[in-house]
């Protein structure tokens, strides 16, 4: 059983992390601004499903394997970079509705893109490898189970934070509908910026 003091410390540290705007928040905000609150929420749910995949990988030791293998890390890294660049170029050059607004994407596709954006982000895999084990106590039971419990706690806290950002961005995007044509540039630049940041991610 995880000691209550350790769990409380983990929750405190996790809250500090999820309250700081990060790449996932930028992605969700870009989606919310471009396509409204529903798209922002779909992105948030997709991102956290991607987080669930990282939790599973960390518990199974796959994150460690990827971090130690230059080839596997490079595959994940450059797949993520390519996907983010694709999203950025699509936002900048894709089909437009009257007034220049980007053509809306089906929410199922928005959700799936959120999953892929998070799963293909090597920084997230390295984060789970570096952060969660600090709170694991071998004397408290199965380390893998502790990683899962800590990971799910972080996921729930992150989901609440993501939903707040999604709703705020969706509301702001609705008010800026008269400038919807300009919002595509915001989304495109955010995606390209995330791709550039992922490109400079190293295993260390």
H/E element string? HHHHHHHHH
Number of helices: 9
Oligomer, anyone?
single chain
The percent range for helix content is: over 70%
Main beta sheet, described? none
* Spatial gap, N to C terminus: 32 Å
Uncertain residue ranges = none
Q: How many DSSP E strands?
A: 0
> Which structural class do the helices and strands define?
mainly alpha
* Domain count: 1
If you had to describe this structure to a student in words, what would you say it looks like?
The chain has one domain. Helix 3 packs across helix 7. By secondary structure, it is mostly helical. It is 78% helix and 0% strand. It is built from 9 helices and no strands. The model has no long low-confidence stretch (mean pLDDT 81).
Keywords summarizing the entry:
204 residues
In short:
By secondary structure, the chain is mainly alpha-helical.
Write the layout of secondary structure elements.
Blueprint (H helix, E strand, L loop, with lengths): L3 H15 L4 H13 L1 H24 L1 H7 L1 H24 L13 H13 L2 H10 L11 H33 L4 H20 L5
């Amino acid at each position: 059983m995880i000691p209550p003091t350790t769990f409380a410390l983990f929750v405190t540290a996790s809250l500090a992390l999820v309250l700081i705007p990060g790449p996932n928040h930028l992605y969700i905000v870009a989606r919310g601004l471009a396509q409204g609150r529903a798209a922002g929420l779909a992105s948030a749910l997709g991102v956290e499903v991607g987080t669930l995949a990282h939790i599973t990988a960390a518990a199974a030791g796959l994150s460690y394997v990827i971090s130690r293998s230059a080839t596997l890390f490079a595959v994940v890294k450059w797949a993520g970079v390519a996907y983010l660049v694709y999203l950025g170029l699509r936002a900048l050059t894709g089909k437009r509705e009257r007034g220049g607004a980007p053509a809306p994407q089906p929410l199922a596709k928005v959700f799936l893109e959120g999953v892929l954006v998070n799963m293909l982000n090597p920084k997230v895999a390295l984060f789970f490898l570096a952060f969660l084990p600090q709170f694991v106590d071998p004397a408290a039971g199965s380390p893998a189970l502790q990683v899962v419990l800590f990971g799910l706690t972080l996921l729930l806290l992150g989901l609440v934070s993501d939903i707040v950002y999604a709703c705020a961005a969706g509301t702001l995007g609705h008010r800026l509908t008269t400038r919807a044509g300009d919002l595509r540039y915001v989304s495109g630049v955010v995606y390209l910026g995330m791709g550039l940041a992922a490109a400079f991610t190293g295993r260390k």
